[in-house]
């Protein structure tokens, strides 16, 4: 199973589209966004991807709360805005949040955003992931990741590129499950 993970799109919808297109090209089945969309266009891009997606709102998304039923009709609004948000995909328990306030090992995979910094760590059988930033605000780098889950391993591929370049570069991390 392959899952695309992104965060902190902010107002950079063109970068968000690039990242979503890349993750679709890499055959991701799901998209997980760790918040800070900042505009409706970024929500629309997720919906238009035709992939299953799971999101939380970030600290800059207050103006988007009223759009929850439009983009997440099957999810109760309160669950979308509270953190952390727990869910399962197949036999794995995930914890998703924007703000990194609940970084406890109570799930198989913990995903967070907000820091705008890539993070990948496997500790005590819990995988902690932050895809970095789509918006290229802290550095002129667009970043996202793909999580590939196999029977005995996790493969994390970080995709990143300078805003002035055409192609994404890849950095890979592997952990035994």
What's this entry about, in short?
By secondary structure, the protein is of the alpha/beta class. It is built from 4 helices and 11 strands.
Structural notes for this entry:
- By secondary structure, this protein is α/β, with parallel strands linked by helices.
- The chain has four helices and eleven strands; from the N terminus they run βαβαβααββββββββ.
- The chain has helices at residues 13-25, 40-48, 68-71, 77-81; strands at residues 2-6, 30-33, 52-55, 85-89, 92-96, 109-111, 118-123, 126-131, 141-149, 153-162, 169-176.
- The strands form two sheets. A six-stranded mixed beta sheet has the order 3-2-1-9-10-11, with helices on one face.
- A hairpin with a 2-residue loop joins β7 (118-123) and β8 (126-131).
- α1 (13-25) runs parallel beside α2.
- The longest helix has 13 residues, at 13-25.
- The chain is globular, with a radius of gyration of 15 Å.
- Mean pLDDT is 93; it is low at 76-80.
What is this structure's SSE topology?
Elements (H helix, E strand, L loop, with lengths): L1 E5 L6 H13 L4 E4 L6 H9 L3 E4 L12 H4 L5 H5 L3 E5 L2 E5 L12 E3 L6 E6 L2 E6 L9 E9 L3 E10 L6 E8 L1
Parallel strand pairs: 1-2, 2-3, 5-6, 6-8
Antiparallel strand pairs: 1-9, 4-5, 7-8, 9-10, 10-11
């Amino acid at each position: 199973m392959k899952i695309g993970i992104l965060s902190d799109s902010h107002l950079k919808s063109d970068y968000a589209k690039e990242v979503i297109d890349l993750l679709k090209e890499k055959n991701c089945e799901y998209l997980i966004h760790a918040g800070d969309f900042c505009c409706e266009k970024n929500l629309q891009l997720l919906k238009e991807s035709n992939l299953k997606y799971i999101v939380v709102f970030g600290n800059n998304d207050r103006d988007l709360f009223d759009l929850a039923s439009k983009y997440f009709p099957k999810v109760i609004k309160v669950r979308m805005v509270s953190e952390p948000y727990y869910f399962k995909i197949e036999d794995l328990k995930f914890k998703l949040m924007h703000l990194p306030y609940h970084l406890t090992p109570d799930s198989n995979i913990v995903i967070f955003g907000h820091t705008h910094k890539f993070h990948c760590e496997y500790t005590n059988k819990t995988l902690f992931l932050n895809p970095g930033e789509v918006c290229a605000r802290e550095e002129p780098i667009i970043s996202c990741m793909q999580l590939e889950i196999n029977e005995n391993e996790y493969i994390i591929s970080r995709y990143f590129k300078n805003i002035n370049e055409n192609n994404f570069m890849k950095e890979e991390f592997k952990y035994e499950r």
